[in-house]
Amino acid sequence: MGNPSDLISLVVFSKPRALAFKNALQANGINASLVEVDAPDPDGLHPQHVFVSPDSLSRALKILESGDFAPVSLLKMTGMGNNLLIPVDFSPSSILAVRAGFALARKFDVEPIVMHCLDDLRFDPNRYSPRDFAKNFSKDLAKDLAKELAKDFAKDHDKVDPRLLALASQRLDEFKEHVAGLQASGDLPDVHFSTALLRGVPEEVIIEYAKQNKPVMVVMATRGIDRKESDLVGSVTAEVIDACRVPVYSIPDNYSFTGIEGIKNILFFCTLSNVDIVLARALMRTFDYPDCRVFLVPVSDRPIHSAGTKLDELAAYFNNAFPAARFFAFPRSSRRFEDDMLRLIDDNNIHLIIVPNKKASAISRFFRPTLAHRFIFERDIPLLVFPV
Questions:
Q1: Cα–Cα distances in Å, from 219 out to 114, 162, 248, 252, 325?
Q2: Contact of 293 with 324, CB cutoff 8 Å
Q3: What is the distance between the alpha carbons of residues 229 and 245, in angstroms, rounded to a whole number?
Q4: 304 phi, psi to nearest 5 deg
Q5: CA 197 to chain CA centroid, nearest Å
Q6: In tens digits, what is the pLDDT along the chain, a chain of 388 residues?
Q7: What is the model's pTM?
Q8: The dihedral of CA 18, 296, 353, 239: what is its sign?
Q9: In terms of Cα–Cα distance, which of 268, 242, 277, 238 is closest to 354?
Q10: Torsion over CA of 172, 181, 222 and 104, rounded to 10 degrees?
Q11: E strand or H helix at 194, and its extent?
């Protein structure tokens, strides 16, 4: 069935939700039509376009964004809060995470939360050497105090000496002042932000915070490729990606972040299901339908002959739906999936990799790494992981 003439496709929903949204529009005096998505639908969800007239578009958008009919979105799913979480450890890469997180927070109109986790078990005194500790301690004395406190807390993890909390709190205050100074100079987006100091193992704290507060995204800096191998199993970012049920954006500290407007070449791993359509539409809406190139790659590296046909169909559908962007099916030129994939990355200057990721156990990750882990440890490219 063709598109209704002189109408605009507002959103794509599953059939039951599309019907409910259509009823809501009509209850508000807005005529709407449904047209089934002309694309592969292996899950049998029968996704539907919801069409409205151009003169009712602004009113329809208000109803759509009211909350009751918010679309399944890459960045703001139903039930999510109005904040974006940026964990920091005060390393130089922390500012990179803040830079990316603030840019995204401004784009999505949410408040960034800069959070630090005080970890007694892996306490690093060099991380807590403030410029002026209580105005009476030199940096060397502050380090000595930190070492002394760390030894004490190793004996009793349930108690926290107020001096250690003061040390971490002052370091976070200094970081906050530094960020505010960068904002004042125009080097960082001028968005209102908050800070939080929590205690515990960082990956566990981040995962629990995301579970309780449901930020629209977690933005983290990860180590560059030259320093990742030694931290393979214990990577905080990798642990968060596996267990966190909100999108995670990881950016390597060797990457030069120039803003989300600079994202022009995207590698998009596809599940060859209705999820691909939902995520692609959300991606395009979120980034204002950008002029970009998107390369569609199947998640599975198994030799499925039909995958190429499905990718071609998806690329054709997306090129028709989003004329400002260009979608390409993954080209296979050899028998090794990974070789072709890495060649595509290197030849096309990929700026962002999008990966749908299922929760994996530590054992399965160690012996059979997920796609997200493979890219964290093999390429210095920002990674947006969406839980499915």
A1: 10, 29, 6, 11, 25
A2: no
A3: 26
A4: -95, 115
A5: 22
A6: 445 557 888 888 888 888 888 877 876 678 889 988 876 666 566 788 888 888 887 778 777 765 445 443 333 444 456 899 999 988 888 999 999 999 989 888 889 999 998 876 666 666 666 544 444 445 555 566 556 655 655 555 555 556 677 778 888 999 999 999 999 999 999 999 999 999 888 899 999 999 888 898 999 988 644 444 444 334 788 888 888 888 899 988 877 777 777 889 999 988 887 778 878 877 777 676 788 999 998 876 554 455 567 888 889 988 887 888 899 998 777 677 777 888 888 899 899 988 887 766 555 555 556 666 666 666 788 888 888 7
A7: 0.71
A8: positive
A9: 268
A10: 110
A11: strand 194-199
The rounded distance, in Å, linking the Cα atoms of 63 and 74 is: 19
Taking the C-alpha atoms of 277, 281, 284 and 287 in order, what is their torsion angle to the nearest 10 degrees?
-120
Contacts of 244 (CB under 8 A, 6+ apart): 206, 207, 210, 218, 387
d(CA 275, CA 314): 12
Angle subtended at Cα 264 by Cα 260 and Cα 267, rounded to the nearest 5 degrees: 105
Contact 84, 110 (CB under 8 A): yes
**Strands laid side by side in the 32-36 sheet:** 8-13, 48-52, 32-36
CB 260 within 8 A of CB 29: no
233 contacts 366 by C-beta, under 8 angstroms: yes
Backbone CA torsion sign across 253, 267, 287, 14: negative
CB 157 within 8 A of CB 122: no
Q: What is the C-alpha to C-alpha distance for residues 195 and 187, in angstroms, rounded to an integer?
A: 19
Q: What residues contact 330, with CB distance under 8 A and at least 6 apart? A: 295, 296, 297, 298, 308, 311, 340, 341, 344
